[in-house]
Specification:
The complex is a heterodimer of chains A (355) and B (493).
Chain A (H helix, E strand, L loop, with lengths): L1 H10 L23 H7 L1 H23 L6 H26 L7 H11 L3 H9 L3 H23 L5 H20 L4 E2 L3 H8 L1 E2 L2 E2 H19 L1 H11 L1 H6 L4 H27 L1 E2 L7 H12 L10 H20 L4 H27 L1
Antiparallel strand pairs in A: 1-4, 2-3
Chain B lengths: L1 E7 L2 E7 L8 E5 L6 H8 L7 E6 L2 E3 L4 H7 L1 E4 L11 H5 L6 E2 L2 E2 L1 H14 L16 H14 L4 E5 L7 H16 L3 E5 L3 H7 L2 E6 L2 E8 L5 H9 L20 E8 L3 E8 L4 E5 L6 H8 L7 E6 L2 E2 L5 H7 L1 E4 L3 H5 L6 H5 L8 E2 L2 E2 L1 H14 L16 H15 L3 E5 L7 H16 L3 E6 L2 H7 L2 E6 L2 E7 L5 H13 L1
Helix pairs in contact in B: 4-5, 8-17, 13-14, 14-15
The chains are: A mainly alpha (355), B alpha/beta (493).
């Protein structure tokens, strides 16, 4: 038995030494600095990895498509194409960071665009101001998000299921309202404003930039963002620290709903239409951008910068493929490969962190 | 088994255990919470592999490296936390892992028939083999779990507190079955806190304390109760508690009045004055944690009120409790208190975010400064506010949780197992910290499985048994034996 006694002493430190020797954590718990994996595991490193991927893509674009790719016009085209899904993705970053998921974003975009372009709304807009259409779209998005949020936070329905139901219902409702027809926007003021440019930069791109910046501040520099990450990281700990987890969860879906409403305004401006087929498969594009950006799908860690880079990577990829006359099916395959590669990398990184 | 040692990172769960079980006997394991009983049975069941020591089966050394290896030898285990699959039927659960099959197809009919026979043998023919386990009561689940152990034709059945959820009649049934199987030379290792049961069904007793065998082969019928308690409580480690503070005759800051929650605890009342420490002593399952969580609003009371400074706190809302000045260091630090991937600073300020907010914007510098100050004053090591909280040892993690409530400046602090998984050195630091808090006038409620800790820290102690308060009195008038006595008698009542 005497051998066992010494063992106990080795593990439990003697009380006298306690003041000074609570000791470093056992077994290299600190993330190892240095080395590529160590660098990549930091937030800056992760973004650097994404930037590198983007640079590689651009290089491929320049080599294969030359000046057609490397022109200011094309750069703006890429940004304009990415702006709509970008706004949705920034919103999605919050929901996923908070431990949720939203499959209904595309459907909400469709419903918002349809509702904001009905004869009734457009008549009102003609009588007052085109801003009515903007409010209509955002309000519809917010209400859809509120329904999602209430069902998930207070109805305790799994986010996957609740938003799957919203996906079906919102798009169905959009079809009913639009009678499966494309609604043309007649409000010139609306199209001129959102379709225009300021100092050569399209308004849509400016909107995306502003929303991304606001999103970054909200996630990283506000109590709202901190609460979001806390409920995503450990909802029980957040609850026992006095955070109103249910309310916060609901807010996240409302926030994403509003982002969808704004995205609807943007897509309306780009296409000058509202239709129930707007935003198809946005849920997949947005989730993909968020995940390859480095936001943990299980919640607790989120990065708006990563999401923006993720969106740019996908949009540039599409652009390069289009310029090289490759079809959308090939694009889809490449997208799938990128998602898998990004998630595999993310797992490796989180494993080096947890050991 | 001889001299079995099991170490986990940072803890020695078993530090030399000897146990010898004869065919056909009921061998009882006795020991306090944390004495290593659960680890020991997991070693026997092949869940954990021991680091040292040998296990012999019928004279041959064996290696139980996997649960299947233990099962193949004939060891069946009924765990305390039931390991049934809720979505499957009773019969499917009983034969899980060894379904009767023919040509790879499971024989559902014969499984159901065999399950029905087993349940009848256990005196519960009313449990339908095709019922879904999720729909059964806790007691019925226990029966199913037992049927599963029997279904394996085991030579040794380990029962970890099987009577905890059974009523008197069901316990009698259980004992009848135990006698039946032991008559067929099957050995039973029986774990219970209830001395009465051990006397009734047991043959021999082994007492564990702090992961070691302190006595083995005692006669279950004749060994005096006093002797058993002495063996369970005699300590090898002495903790140093700071001297207790004098309590001024002030108005109580926390008043708990007839607090009840169905099936968890009933009519708990007590008061805590500023600077006072009130301890809740009781076994696991006595409702200790449930009581503090209810005071904290994490559970909703069925009846009763909680007042802070004379004002009733809205029940069932953590936010309301926190606003009223209550803080809780929960039992499970990692799953309930910390966001492990987040920095120490973020974890410390989690309950005080509005203080660092200007119109919603976080003042990151002020946040980091406050956190740094606290880490320094609590001597959290390693330092570094940006370090992820998962990288800290248990004691330092606990200090971070305490820092969260220190920062908030609570009037009432509820500490649930404040030193679980904390090494000896950090323990005394945490004790000193509690004393520092009471000097500042904080009212503290301490829950601990370790009776000496409750007695050493508290001014007054409430002893819980059978989900209610059995005794309330000054800590000085109690010792470990007296508390155990109250608990064990209460349980038997």
């Amino acid at each position: 038995m005497s051998a066992d006694v010494t063992k106990v002493d080795q593990t439990g430190e003697p009380a006298a030494a306690a003041g000074t020797a609570s000791g470093p954590p056992v077994g290299g718990a600190a993330p190892r600095a240095g080395g590529l994996a160590g660098f990549l595991s930091g937030p800056a490193g992760r973004s650097a990895g994404l930037v590198l991927a983007l640079v590689l893509l651009i290089a491929v674009g320049v080599i294969t498509a030359g000046d057609r790719f490397a022109s200011p016009e094309n750069a703006l085209t890429i940004l304009r194409l990415g702006s709509v899904i970008g706004v949705v993705s920034v919103g999605m970053t919050f929901v996923i960071s908070g431990g949720g998921i939203d499959l209904s974003v595309g459907a909400i975009v469709a419903l918002s665009s349809v509702w904001a372009t009905t004869v009734a709304t457009q008549t009102m807009a003609a009588n007052y101001h085109w801003i009515v259409m903007v409010f209509a779209a955002i309000l519809v998005g917010a209400v859809c998000g509120l329904v999602n949020g209430v069902l998930i936070a207070y109805g305790r329905i799994a986010p996957f299921i609740a938003t799957l139901a919203m996906l079906a219902a919102a798009r169905g409702l959009a079809e009913i309202i639009a009678k499966r027809r494309t609604q043309i926007i007649r409000e010139r003021g609306f199209i001129d404003f959102f379709g225009g440019s300021v100092l050569g930069i399209p308004v849509l791109v400016i909107m995306f930039a502003i929303i991304a910046a606001l999103g970054w501040v909200l996630l990283n520099r506000t109590t709202f963002g901190r609460r979001t990450l806390a409920i995503g990281g450990n909802p029980e700990a957040a609850r026992l620290a006095g955070i109103r987890v249910q309310r916060q969860t609901m807010y996240l879906y409302v926030l994403l709903g509003v982002a969808c409403g704004i995205a609807a305004v943007m897509i309306m401006a780009r296409t000058t239409t509202g239709t129930s087929t707007h935003g198809t498969l946005y849920e997949l594009d947005a989730i993909a951008a968020v995940v390859i950006g480095g936001t943990l799908l299980s919640g607790g860690r989120g990065t708006v910068v990563g999401t923006v880079l993720g969106v740019l990577i996908f949009t540039t990829l599409t652009n390069v493929f289009t310029l090289n006359n490759l079809d959308t099916s090939t694009q889809a395959v490449a997208k799938g490969a990128i998602i898998v590669a990004a998630v595999l990398l993310q797992q490796r990184v989180s494993r080096t962190r947890s050991t | 088994m001889t001299n079995v040692v099991k170490r986990f990172p940072g803890v020695v769960a078993l530090g030399g255990v000897d146990l010898e079980v004869r065919p056909g006997e009921v061998h009882c394991l006795l020991g306090q919470n944390g004495a290593g009983k659960s680890t020991l049975i997991k070693v026997l069941a092949g869940v954990h592999e021991p680091n040292e020591g040998t296990i012999e089966w019928a004279g041959e050394p064996v290696s139980l490296h996997h649960p299947q290896a233990a099962m193949d030898l004939g060891v069946a285990t009924m765990y305390q936390e039931l390991d049934l699959v809720e979505g499957l039927t009773v019969a499917e659960n009983i034969f899980l892992g060894h379904e009767p099959t023919r040509l790879g197809f499971s024989q559902r009919t014969s499984a159901r028939r065999a399950a029905a026979a087993l349940l009848a043998r256990l005196g519960h023919p009313e449990i339908s083999p095709s019922a879904e386990v999720g729909t059964l009561s806790a007691a019925a689940c226990q029966i199913v779990s037992m049927a599963r152990a029997l279904s394996r034709d085991a030579r040794l059945i380990i029962m970890d507190e099987p009577s905890a959820v059974l009523d008197a009649g069901e316990v009698d049934q259980l004992f009848r079955v135990i006698r039946e199987v032991t008559a067929q030379d099957v050995a039973v290792v029986y774990i219970s806190h209830r001395l009465e049961e051990i006397r009734e069904v047991g043959d021999r007793v082994t007492v564990l304390k702090d992961g070691r065998t302190v006595a083995t082969g005692l006669d279950a019928k004749t060994t005096p109760t006093q002797e058993l308690i002495r063996l369970m409580t005699g300590r090898s480690i002495e903790y140093v508690f700071p001297p207790k503070a004098e309590i001024a005759d002030a108005e109580p800051v926390l008043q708990v009045e007839h607090l009840s929650r169905t099936d968890e605890f009933s009519s708990v009342s007590f008061e805590v004055r500023p600077g006072e420490v009130v301890g809740l002593a009781g076994l696991v399952g006595s409702g200790r944690s449930e009581i503090v969580e209810t005071i904290f609003g994490a559970r909703k009371a069925t009846s009763g009120t909680v007042r802070v400074g004379g004002r009733a706190v809205r029940g069932g809302s953590v936010a309301a409790a926190v606003a009223a000045g209550i803080g809780l260091c929960p039992e499970e630090r990692k799953s309930q208190a910390l966001v492990l991937d987040h920095s120490l600073a973020a974890n410390i300020t989690l309950a005080t975010l509005p203080r660092f907010s200007r119109g919603g914007l976080l003042d990151g510098r002020a946040e980091v400064e406050s956190a740094e100050e606290l880490l320094e004053s609590l001597d959290v090591r390693p330092r570094g506010v940006h370090r992820e909280s998962r990288t800290l040892s248990g004691g330092n993690q606990q200090k971070v949780v305490l820092a969260r409530w220190l920062l908030r400046g609570c009037k009432v602090l509820l500490l649930d197992e404040p030193t679980r998984g904390v090494d000896v050195g950090a323990r005394s630091e945490i004790y000193a910290l509690i004393r520092r808090l009471t000097d500042e006038g904080v009212a503290v409620v301490v829950v601990s499985s370790e009776i000496p800790e409750v007695l050493g820290l508290s001014n007054r102690v409430l002893v819980l048994a059978d989900r209610t308060v059995r005794h309330e009195g000054p800590a000085d008038e109690l010792d470990e034996h007296a508390v155990l006595d109250i608990i064990l008698k209460g349980d038997a009542a």
